[in-house]
């Protein structure tokens, strides 16, 4: 037959185990909160980078459109420029290289310079688009990691609540043990009268 001392020793062990689990849950929640704050900081940085890249991309696109409109206006009023542009386009598309017919008077050369600048602007726009797409991808990945951390934290908190319910059970059990110990110290006829209250537990 188990004595009150045996029950008390067992429940002391359970209390120690509960305290260890509770401390482990506390440390885990603190770790997840720290990682969550760090993840939020990373997400904020990515959002700021996305905003900056979007602004720069929009400015570059506006500048590119303005340059293209200006060049189109020049070409439409100059026959030599139109010829130079046609020959330049053939070379860019991989047609056999040929000497531009209007290079001698400088008009064709100026046209080529304008087209080169336009092409450089277009390349910068492509690079910005790629950078923006990559940053948005990293932002989504960071948000997914943050969501996973939130799930882990909720699971840890739920586990801590389970431990709290376990603690309530421990308190009730220890109280019962104390009642048993008290009844064992009482005379025999008094213990028989209190057995009903002990049996409740």
From TrEMBL:
Coiled-coil intervals, chain numbering: 111-152
Record keyword Coiled coil present: yes
Region listing for Disordered, in residue ranges: 180-201
Domain of life the protein comes from: Eukaryota
Record's keyword terms, sorted: Coiled coil
Keyword Coiled coil: yes
Name of the protein described by the UniProt record: Uncharacterized protein
Organism listed in the record: Wuchereria bancrofti
Phylogenetic classification of the source organism: Eukaryota, Metazoa, Ecdysozoa, Nematoda, Chromadorea
């Amino acid at each position: 037959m188990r004595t009150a001392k045996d029950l008390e020793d067992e429940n002391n062990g359970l209390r120690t185990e509960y305290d260890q689990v509770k401390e482990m849950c506390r440390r885990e929640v603190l770790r997840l909160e720290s990682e969550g704050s760090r993840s939020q900081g990373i997400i904020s940085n990515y959002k700021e980078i996305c905003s900056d890249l979007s602004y720069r991309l929009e400015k570059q696109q506006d500048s590119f459109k303005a340059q293209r409109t200006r060049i189109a206006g020049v070409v439409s009023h100059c026959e030599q420029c139109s010829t130079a542009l046609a020959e330049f386009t053939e070379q860019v598309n991989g047609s056999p290289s040929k000497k531009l017919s209007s290079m001698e008077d400088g008009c064709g050369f100026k046209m080529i310079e304008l087209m080169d600048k336009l092409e450089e602007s277009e390349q910068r726009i492509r690079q910005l688009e790629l950078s923006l797409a990559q940053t948005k991808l990293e932002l989504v990945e960071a948000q997914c990691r943050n969501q996973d951390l939130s799930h882990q934290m909720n699971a840890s908190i739920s586990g801590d609540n389970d431990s709290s319910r376990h603690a309530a059970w421990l308190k009730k059990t220890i109280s019962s043990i104390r009642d048993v110990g008290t009844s064992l110290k009482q005379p025999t006829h008094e213990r028989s009268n209190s057995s009903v209250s002990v049996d409740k537990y």
